[in-house]
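User: structure tokens for this one?
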Amino acid sequence: MKGDTSIRDINRRLDWNLPDEEANTMAGLIIHESESIPEIGREFQFYGVKFKIDRKKNNQITSIVASKIPKKKGK
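Assistant:
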């Protein structure tokens, strides 16, 4: 997905529940949560989603790969 994709759009389309109080875009959420501008290939897990930085242009995250982490049975 593009880094400038709205968190609200992703929540609606994928039925996710990512917070949008501190950031409006997916890139903004990653920067906020990681407290950095991560390098290409860096991976993070938060809010039940795995994020991987796919592309950047200068200091902007332009592409992210994101996938829901399956819940473990019994939890």
